[in-house]
Write a structure and sequence with these properties.
- The chain has 19 helices and four strands.
- The chain is an alpha+beta fold and about 425 residues long.
- The protein folds into three domains: about 1-200, no CATH class; about 265-330, no CATH class; about 350-430, Sufe protein. Chain: A (Alpha-Beta Complex).
- The protein is elongated.
- Helix 5 runs parallel beside helix 12 (about 195-225).
- Bound molecules: protoporphyrin IX containing FE.
């Protein structure tokens, strides 16, 4: 979705403002910086809640790297178009400017998310699971490559370099493009495998677009080297690559999740082993239709199957093993984020307190109003998680916390990470106020 929205302004800029870009490039970079700074803040702090869906999408185009990515796509495809194509002739003179603008915007997006993810990498790397660790390492490498590529795109710098050295350095752009694709797929991996629509679409779209680029680039090279007979195998290879990546990413866990839900409906799944991680535990549960349900679960009114489904549907488990500690073992999958208040002085003095926690895509913030020793109001202040999940989590969690006066509520199964983060943020707010 973000890709589709972002491609339009990128194409408009490239074709509609072509001559302006040639004549006033520094004006454009200044404009880029003006957009990059708020984008970084939004990526780090979350998009303010309560805004309409179109406004949220518009902000996401900048903060989630959509426009930067779309501009890089224009730059990439320009290099892959045939020499005689009109579009190539029009775009080649502004390719440099577009890539500098894209870099400025990407720095904003990357720096913002970096405040969440790089901090995790340097403070809790051993607790990160493989997919998330790979996504963060990809992103770090992206930023490291981006800087020399961007700086050497300025004419003044290029002129000081030997042409061969400049060309050698710019070849790293191919790795950079691959890493853009890689970090997107890795960050979306678990949500896509769970069959979440937005993530599935994102994976399919980016895979198709990057495969098309690869195919066109290789065909161009085949023509240049007068090896036209390679074109068909190249096209076949890129098609298979697209189908393979899409299938690998989308099929296995989505199937397991459906399977687990089927078992859940039948009340057949078994509790996973407490030492397994969420994915393994959930999958194991999904694959093991044993009727055992621990009495502990019965006491909470949860069947083993519900616990198993929650374990399957816990993408946050991928973010941190802090989640593992809480949400990964089957018997703990439905445990509350905080213990219920058991005395009258549990909550702090009346007032409004703010708290934050890391959701699926980054930080979210809540404000908690305490009145007469009870939570009287809850509000989501900002969030970067995707909208349908945020609404589901807020609608599922806030009314329950308000009515029960406790954080001991079940998470919303279709928005587990965001639900857990909401509960943690409320807990954080109460904790910072001296409650808990
Ligand atoms: C430097 C070049 C970078 C570019 C061009 C870039 C571009 C993108 C694009 C196009 C998306 C997909 C947006 C969508 O359609 O949903 C994305 C997602 C994402 N990027 Fe980057 N990115 C870059 C660097 C980084 C860095 C350094 C980080 C830091 C951790 C990062 C973190 C993320 C995250 C977390 C997402 C998922 C956002 C979400 O779905 O909410 N990116 N990026």
């Amino acid at each position: 979705m973000i890709l589709i929205i972002s491609v339009l302004p990128a194409l408009l800029l490239a074709f509609g403002f072509n001559s302006l870009l040639r004549r006033h490039e520094y004006l454009l970079y200044g404009f880029g910086i003006c957009l990059a700074v708020p984008s970084a803040v939004l990526a780090a702090e979350g998009i303010p809640a309560g805004l309409s869906y179109p406004v949220q999408m518009l902000l996401a185009v900048f903060s989630k790297g959509g426009l930067a990515g779309a501009l890089f796509l224009v730059v990439m495809f320009t290099g892959a178009l045939p020499d005689q194509s009109k579009a190539r002739k029009k775009l080649i003179p502004i390719r440099r400017q577009l890539s500098i603008l894209a870099s400025v915007l990407a720095i904003g997006h990357g720096a913002g998310y970096g405040t969440v993810y790089f901090v995790r990498l340097f403070t809790a790397a051993s607790e990160l699971k493989t997919v998330m660790l790979s996504a963060i390492l990809c992103s770090l490498l992206l930023l490291i490559l981006l800087l020399p590529l961007c700086v050497t795109s300025f004419i003044a710098v290029r002129r000081r370099m030997k042409p061969a050295a400049w060309k050698r350095l710019q070849r790293w752009a191919y790795l950079f493009y691959a890493l853009i694709y890689g970090h997107i797929i890795l960050f979306k991996w678990h949500a896509a495998q769970k069959g979440e629509r937005e993530a599935v679409l994102t994976v399919i779209l980016y895979t198709a677009v990057f495969a098309a680029y690869l195919g066109m680039r290789l065909c161009r090279e085949a023509v240049r080297r007068k090896k036209e007979d390679l074109i068909l195998p190249v096209l076949l290879m890129t098609f298979l690559l697209t189908a393979g990546v899409t299938a690998a990413c989308l099929l296995p866990e989505a199937a397991a999740s459906r399977e687990a839900q089927a078992f859940s409906a039948a009340g057949l799944a078994q509790l996973p082993d407490t030492n397994q991680n969420a994915d393994e535990a959930g999958l194991q549960a999904a694959k093991t239709p044993a009727p055992d349900v621990l009495p502990e679960e019965n006491a909470r009114g949860l069947s083993g199957s519900e616990v198993a489904v929650q374990a399957v549907e816990t993408p946050a488990s991928d973010v941190l093993s802090e989640e593992n500690a809480r949400g990964l073992s089957g018997s703990e999958a439905a445990l509350p984020v905080a213990e219920a208040p058991d005395s009258d002085d549990y909550f702090p003095e009346d007032g409004i307190y703010n708290g934050s926690a890391i959701g699926y895509n980054g930080r979210l913030k809540v404000s908690v109003t305490v009145q007469d020793g009870r939570i009287s109001d809850l509000a989501l202040k900002s969030c970067v998680d995707d909208e349908p999940y945020v609404s589901r989590a807020v609608d599922g969690i806030f009314p329950k916390v308000l009515s029960d006066g406790s954080l001991q509520v079940d998470t919303v199964s279709s928005a587990t990470s965001t639900s857990e983060a909401l509960l943690k943020a409320i807990e954080d707010a109460l904790g910072s106020a001296g409650g808990n």
